[in-house]
């Protein structure tokens, strides 16, 4: 993610949005809690942006294994849990209506019916019929549609890294990646495409790509090696520079370059079946370094050992980072 986008939302606001999401997704919320959330949401545009980010990343909760629901049900029957904790538990594991909410989001079945998909913590390398290579990140879904006119990928969810090959068909079909926000045309290149909440992010590592938003009245934009940009359906945002050779996740790492703790944990959640939140008062602690994704528990243990934080496990499949 470009550093400019990170600066738009204060880390504390992201942490607050995560807490509200867990409460409201339960389906058993008191009217006063709904009113408090609506007041919080209307207080500042940043709150709405943070809510959209957390809502997007939290879509992975439907992938929790069946034993999570069993463990949580048992926990909810314990007499010493108060109502707020119960609400958080139910939101965490999809009880009391979470599945219905996700189905209503529209992409639920598209993900399940996609030609290629990966589970949480899984990556996959596929070779297309033209010799191009596509790597799917954790929790991603992709459709492949090669016709006489196009070599087309449809990114339904998550992130993909692509190394295109020359087309063996005589008329050299264009290679494109489509998302709800528009189309990315490869110009003989290596690049990645990430589907985010109402945004598509494109990063170019070699040669160039051309971006065309869904609204064709918006101008096209060419990105070259070392450039990155996000675009919505009706506009392309600012271009940022990067110095990567390829995405860190394709090499099994998550890289933090002065990243706020709340943002780092939000991204780390993509690679484990549990949900991670942090207390707002420590949300702005800065994270730097490269962390191997093979064992995300070790990453959390490292944070606990090197930052003024401690880990709490209120319920199975939920880790909360608190001030030490």
From TrEMBL:
The organism named in the record is Methylomonas fluvii
Name one matching Pfam family: FecR
Q: Which residues form the FecR protein domain?
A: 117-210
Q: What is this protein called?
A: FecR domain-containing protein
What InterPro entries does the database record attribute to this sequence? Answer: FecR, FecR_N, Ferrdict_sens_TM
Which residues are in the FecR N-terminal domain?
Answer: 16-55
Question: Please, which domain of life does this record's source organism belong to?
Answer: Bacteria
Q: Which Gene3D superfamilies does this entry report, sorted A to Z?
A: 2.60.120.1440
């Amino acid at each position: 993610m470009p550093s400019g986008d990170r600066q738009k939302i204060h880390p504390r606001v992201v942490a607050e949005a995560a807490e509200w999401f867990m409460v409201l997704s339960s389906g058993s919320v008191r009217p006063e809690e709904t009113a408090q959330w609506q007041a919080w949401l209307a207080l500042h545009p940043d709150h709405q942006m943070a809510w959209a980010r957390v809502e997007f990343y939290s879509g992975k909760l439907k992938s929790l294994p069946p034993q999570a629901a069993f463990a949580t049900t048992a926990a909810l029957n314990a007499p010493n849990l108060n109502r707020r904790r119960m609400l958080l538990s139910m939101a965490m594991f999809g009880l009391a209506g979470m599945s219905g909410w996700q189905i209503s989001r529209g992409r639920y079945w598209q993900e399940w019916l996609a030609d290629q998909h990966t589970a949480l913590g899984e990556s996959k390398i596929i070779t297309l019929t033209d010799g191009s290579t596509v790597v799917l990140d954790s929790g991603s879904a992709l459709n492949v549609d090669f016709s006489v006119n196009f070599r087309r990928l449809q990114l339904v969810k998550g992130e993909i890294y692509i190394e295109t090959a020359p087309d063996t068909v005589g008329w050299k079909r264009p290679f494109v990646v489509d998302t709800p926000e528009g189309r990315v045309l490869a110009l003989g290149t290596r690049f990645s495409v990430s589907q985010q909440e109402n945004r598509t992010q494109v990063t170019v590592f070699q040669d160039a790509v051309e971006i065309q938003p869904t609204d064709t009245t918006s101008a096209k934009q060419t990105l070259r090696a070392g450039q990155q940009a996000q675009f919505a359906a009706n506009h392309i945002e600012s271009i940022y520079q990067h110095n990567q050779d390829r995405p860190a996740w394709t090499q099994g790492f998550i890289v933090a370059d002065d990243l706020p703790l709340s943002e780092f944990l939000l991204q780390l959640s993509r690679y484990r079946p549990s949900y991670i939140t942090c207390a707002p008062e420590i949300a702005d602690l800065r994270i730097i370094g490269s962390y191997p994704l093979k064992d995300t528990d070790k990453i959390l243990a490292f944070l606990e050992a090197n930052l003024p934080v401690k880990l709490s496990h209120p319920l199975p499949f939920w880790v909360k980072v608190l001030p030490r």
